[in-house]
Amino acid sequence: MGAPDDRRGRSAADAAQPARYWFDPAMPYVESRCACDSGAAYLPHTHPTLSIGAIDSGHSLFSTEAGPVRLSRGDVVVIPAGQVHACNPVPDGRWSYQMLHLDPAWVEAVLAANGAAPALPQALARVRITSAADSYAALCRLNQMLFSAAPAARKEAALAGFVGVLLGGIDPRQTVRLPRPPACGQASLARLVALLRERHAEALPLADMARSVGLSRYQLIRAFRAETGMTPHAYQLDLRINQARRLLRAGAAPAEIAQELGFSDQSHFQRAFKQRVALTPRHYQRRPR
Predict the structure, then answer these.
(1) Any idea where the HTH araC/xylS-type domain is (predicted)?
(2) Fewer CB within a 10 Å sphere, N or C end of the chain?
(3) pTM of the predicted model, to two decimals?
(4) Which domains does the chain have, with CATH numbers?
């Protein structure tokens, strides 16, 4: 599927752009992205959202701590909020895809209103993959609606209907990928994670972090990666990027965000952001016209 039409009707030249992004301030609980014939690769990262992606063409390697899986055209993947992952084209390949990001609280409210099963929240905490043609077609129709000039009320109704069908029950056609259990359950590591969350904008030396948990720097990196899927530095950068997304959506200037979140300069911020979002901060922030 090509990128859906913009909600305000962009030109054919704009429609040919390799990546397109949609959000509407009237619907702050959802954003959508479509990329066509892309070779962009992502570093391992997380989203604070529940994310639903689909492959439109080409092949992709979707990686989590449970290992990689190859995705092909028509595959749909549901990624829980906070799940460390990377989804990239196969080596020397290109792919087209769409990705929907949903606020987890909004999803839970929709499912609760639909009378979802009590066990569903636990099921949604796991990666799920399906090759069901109707699931893929439904996501395509939804994105066509989101990128169209339809009023927000119609878009919200379509989105709620899609969520209710895809996530409102345990579909036996969906493959559930269970995360590996943490390799190290040290309370000191949990405290370090909490510290990084609280002080993610500060440059915390690795040696100081290692001393705080009674490990060497190498031992800390290995244990932290086993616990979270990332090194301490990557984890801290990921927290900064997710905070940057919230600030950009609120209208903050990229230069101010770079300074507030502890990046060495705006170029460092832009590079780190693009490695995890595949858009520049300005492109991410730009509202559809």
Answers:
(1) 190-287
(2) C
(3) 0.80
(4) 12-177 (2.60.120.810), 187-285 (1.10.10.60)
